[in-house]
Amino acid sequence: MLKELCLLNGASGDEGAVREYIISQIKDYCDYYVDALGSIIATKKGRITPNKKISINAHMDEVGFIVTGITDDGYLRFSPVGGIDPRVCIDRVVSVGDTKGVIGDKAFHLLENDEKDKCPSFDKLLIDIGASSYDEALTKVSPGDYAYFVSDYYEFGDGFIKSKALDDRIGCMLMIEMIQSDLEYDTTFCFNVQEEVGLRGAACTSFAVEADVAIILESTTAADLDAVKGIDRVCVTGDGPVVSFMDGRTIYDKDLYRQIRSFADKNGIPNQTKTAIAGGNDAGAIQTSGRGARVVGISIPARYIHSGASVVKKSDIDNTRLLLEKMFYDRKD
Fold first, then answer.
1. Cα–Cα distance between 63 and 58 in angstroms, integer?
2. Which of 62, 195, 196, 218 is catalytic?
3. Angstrom distance (rounded) from CA 40 to CA 118
4. 195 is an active site residue
């Protein structure tokens, strides 16, 4: 399921293919509807109706690009959709509908001295689709079309997975699995759109759901690379799910943070926290919507996030799944 989800294209505002796939997986197991912005809100009955309304959230969208114009020579100008570092884009193959292209920059030997040590900005990059003129390019693509990293999905090394869109199709997969199972508690699941461009889908679904407690399933930056030591690694692939106490958008509920980490420890589930206050996710919108909600984030550590080649470890997915099973299937209190 994860491979199928990751290989679907679905940047912010273009999540249709992902939404259709998710609906095909959950429609026989829950009640659901699609809101005006395109998010899926699904309700699954459990054995017990809890005193507090619970929601679990993940976002369907991934980072990508959008075509903004075409040059006289047939190259495509484009902008990022979501936070992408231009350094991960140069010479990458992308798809624009059925058309393939390559993201290019000025040849290195033509760069001025002051350009050689700088990363080019997006307004200096172009997508080469092999067209020789504006008119020829326009027969294949149009301004407003989305472009995506062309990326395969494969497993390698000691239990690692490489793919685009692992952020946040892992969260979507885990929620699908929960909907397809027998739950202990009534739970609402929100598959949100447009997280990567400002948490927009979650701002809408949180008003509709009005959860008392919201769990956000995400991916987060792991910097456990060669020569990176100590707290600069932020979080580590293979050390289990990441439970955050704060990020760039949210101060998470202290009691929930402590409870979930203690619960994981008691059940022998590896877990960790982040050692940097950075980034953000749908919790930032959910926490402050309507009456407000108590929020907690559970994330998969991912190397090279927001690129065409993110890397996660399967054991972290398995331990996150186990944590959710213990929380929502095994508990009787």
1. 15
2. 195
3. 42
4. yes
